[in-house]
Amino acid sequence: MTRVSVIGLGRMGRGIARRLSSRGYEVFGYDVMTSAYSYLKDLQNFKSLSSPADASESDFVLLSLPGGSELLAILPQLKGLEGVAINLTTIGLEESRKAKSLAEDLGLKYITAMMEGGPTNAEAGTLVLYVGGNRGLYEASKQVLSDMGQHIYVGSDESAVALKLISTLILMANTVVLAEAASALKNLGAPPDDIVKALSMGGADSAQLRSRLPLMLKGSYKELFSIELGSYVAEEALKALKELGSTFTPVLAEVSEVLAAAKQRGLGKSDISEVEELYRLLSLK
To answer: Which UniProt keywords apply (predicted)?
Structure first.
């Protein structure tokens, strides 16, 4: 039985642990918040670890952490790991370089797999994964990646990170545009589901229209992708765009500013679709 350790049991990590458990893997997990284990207590083939170092005998270690600083703190604890360490943590290009360099210094077999999708996708095995790093390690990891979702090899670790950042910024730009129009759409007086269906039949259709516009129109939000994380990703994506040659990005820079303003007001604890509340509040002034 393939042994997988998930380091970081937040919403995404827990979903991945559940998915791999259902696929017959022997799943171990670690989180600094011991309360995270209670969400997985019903799994028959899950065991908690007392520290990341205890994952040393795993075939794969999946790193699903809050950010780059946590990733850099965990990697040294994996020294001696014979299996493959797969970073799933959303980070910027500079943090990616630091993590890659540190992993090499530690002698780790390390690749990057940037995730797209939310906790529901993680549990259903329908994530999208941009994979970068050593091609041989990618080939050796294909089965576990396939059990997590669709995956594509894009070259270097940095390429995987850059694609994730840029893709997510485009996604958030679409969400902000929908938020700007949401109040007007509500005032049409038609049922929210009919509005979404009508718009999805034409050129305005998008994944965000179908998944996030209903949340805005109904004022009912799911725990998906917080504005705090979204704001961080937007800042890192703008840095990546500039480094890669897109130096004039006024529209995307404005998206980043909108997210920062929403974050400042304490909005978006559950999802970036809550940016609609920022527009509603500003419209009342």
So the answer is: NAD, Oxidoreductase
